């Protein structure tokens, strides 16, 4: 099973430029999480920090009891073997065919025989749907195939943590849907902890168990998907609806005067260019392709989320309860109602003035 990744008070700067500060979150073992954020908010820097390629100035990243930020080079090398990373550009070697690209980590980091290498490479290429493409060069195939080859290469060392940097970038909506399904299928087959960085709204809505968002050099929120999908925190709502109206501007941040003017314009009945009026809410999550085992994370996550449900906002509570089967509702002793008022779960967040939660540490 995948391992837990605990990020605590992480801050990363380049010279005087702080990329993000005080990021605190936990990637639960075997669950799929998505980190959202506008371009340039430091999502790639976050992934590279997790895998030890960049060194944050402050905070901890704890995996199996080891703090990656401060451990020895030797220990870091050991921990890195737990990771499979799909970089934003696929990072394939242009002069090597797909077989050799996928085989590369095995030849580099293990002493497996060529027969074993071949068996593993073909197995992973089959998992990502690339059978028959072994001899192709990266330049001869589509962007979607390159992503899948990058993913196959990330899988060959049997990672317990998989990091994907914008797996959907450059893909059309159909290819993106296939890739989303592939990630869920992989999770059902190997139960690895997965973190996907993206700014794709559809991926964010349908793929992960947990959602987070980086904005203005901070982690705005991180928690169960139901919390962000029902959130009325302006940054999160604007982003998940792809709207111009809101705090996120063309070059990241808007000033107050612009926001007020836009709001007045919208209230006067003008469109702000968003695709739908409002698509806030919990949409069904992707399930593994029929025939594959159920995702191990689903059961664990239900126990985990139900143990903290009383700390979540009412809409998120409703979304979670509505996703349970009648048997599960009996098991957890909750019942689905028509509105938050009828939930039998104690509501402790209703009168909390600050948006929930600024930092998702315990979630
Ligand atoms: N190695 C680096 N040295 C200096 N600045 C960097 C480095 N890598 C990234 N940055 C800066 O960090 C910021 C966040 O970049 P990035 O993580 O790539 O954003 P995102 O992936 O969210 O689009 C950018 O302003 C970028 O210029
Ligand atoms: Mg990036």
UniProtKB/TrEMBL annotation:
CDD domains registered for this protein in UniProt: ABC_Org_Solvent_Resistant
Record keyword DNA-binding present: no
Entry annotated with the keyword Glycoprotein: no
One term of GO molecular function: ATP binding
Stretches assigned to the ABC transporter domain: 5-241
Pfam families registered for this protein in UniProt: ABC_tran (PF00005)
Domain of life: Bacteria
Keywords: ATP-binding, Nucleotide-binding, Transport
Region spans: Disordered: 337-363
Protein's recorded name: Phospholipid/cholesterol/gamma-HCH transport system ATP-binding protein
Species annotation: Saccharothrix tamanrassetensis
